[in-house]
Amino acid sequence: MTHLYDRHKAVIPDWVALYYKQPIEITHGEGRHVWDADGNRYLDFFGGILTTMTAHALPEVTKAVSDQAGRIIHTSTLYLNRPMVELAERIAALSGIPDARVFFTTSGTEANDTALLLATNHRRSNQILAMRNSYHGRSFSAVSITGNHSWSPTSLSPLQTLYVHGGVRTRGPYAQLSDAQFIEACVADLEDLLGHTRDVAALIAEPVQGVGGFTSPPDGLYAAFREVLDRHGILWISDEVQTGWGRTGDNFWGWQAHAGSGPPDLLTFAKGIGNGMSVGGVVGRAEIMNCMDANSISTFGGSPITMAAGVANLSYLLEHDLQGNARRVGGLLIERLRAIGAGVPAVQEVRGRGLMIGIELVRPGTDLANPEAAAKVLEAAREGGLLIGKGGGHNTSVLRIAPPLSLTVAEAEEGASILERALRSV
């Protein structure tokens, strides 16, 4: 891989990160496994950053892509598109949002960018509330609402962003409170913040923060926020790019853990729905989705080939109850990892739900983040045949575990055993 790595460095910007001291080239996959160019086989616990949602080389999806490619690959949204309408109908029905409309994009970044455009236009305001430790993409507008220093390369912004407490339960000024007190304090912070601003367009929040290290507030926080937002006419955008499609096990969407005040006004999605194809989008109330007073299309969003993949992938997910599998297998995996973590001084917390699990590493005996240990565990896991991810708002000290939702119990146990050896080795 040295030759390919040298070629990569010669033409790709330095800020495009690569995992591992000796980066690997993944050449093919099947089920929950992938192979590199040297023939090494890995159990995949990261799925291309939570994107390979069902399985690698899923026959139903590859056939749908092949069949569609044999007919026509691209037309744009200027023409009627049967696969796009079919997928939009299904997503609108699943969203829980009444009288919903769906707009497809090519990525989660673009989905969030579109949601911000809609919200600011609808509310005639460029003020946005976002959560501390959040991540919403790499575009100019998405970076400006990202509350994570590691992923914010500029302070310039088309928006005025105000950051709210609540995305991280175990750190910050409210960490020692009970769940009920935590919610009460965060709501009071929101109320106080709104007393110092002009009209705000929207609050955007990940129900479980992805890049931030799979952190989340107590269930019900965003429902409590919604009561405050509604009094001010402020929209709620739920960023479901990583939490959607049943990954958390208990719910199909992350917002449903906060459902006391109903569904969000806008919901953004991407990653898993395409199972590797470039699919993102926004679903929301017609009143908001139809508020644009200028022409807009998408050249590549909703292309026939990606929509065909999305329809086939969603059908497989629902027909095989992969949400239930995420709940069952994920529940077993997180308990196994918690038992392992209890014996490793560097593990501060094992958290998550379903097949969205984070392991936060600290310097033993302290609350200080330990990014060096996280990097070593990442390397040791790969050497043991397991691919995982990293993240966290505190110096990238969280191991991120998010396998395809078809993970078996045996594979969960295999991955946990590799992780145990990797954790104990550092």
Give a quick precis of the structure.
This protein has 426 residues and is of the alpha/beta class.
The parts where pLDDT drops under 50 for at least 5 residues are: none
Mean pLDDT: 95
Question: What is the tally of beta strands?
Answer: 15
Structural class: alpha/beta
| Secondary-structure element order, N to C | HEEEHHHEHEHEHEHEEEHHHEEHEEEH
What do you see in this structure?
The protein is α/β, with parallel strands linked by helices. It is 37% helix and 16% strand. The protein is built from 13 helices and 15 strands. The strands form three sheets. The chain has a seven-stranded mixed beta sheet with strand order 4-10-9-8-7-5-6, sandwiched between helices. A hairpin with a 2-residue loop joins β11 (347-353) and β12. α7 runs parallel beside α8 and α12 (371-383) crosses α13. The longest helix is centred in the last third of the chain and has 20 residues, at 322-341. The radius of gyration is 21 Å and the shape is globular. The two termini are 26 Å apart. The model has no long low-confidence stretch (mean pLDDT 95).
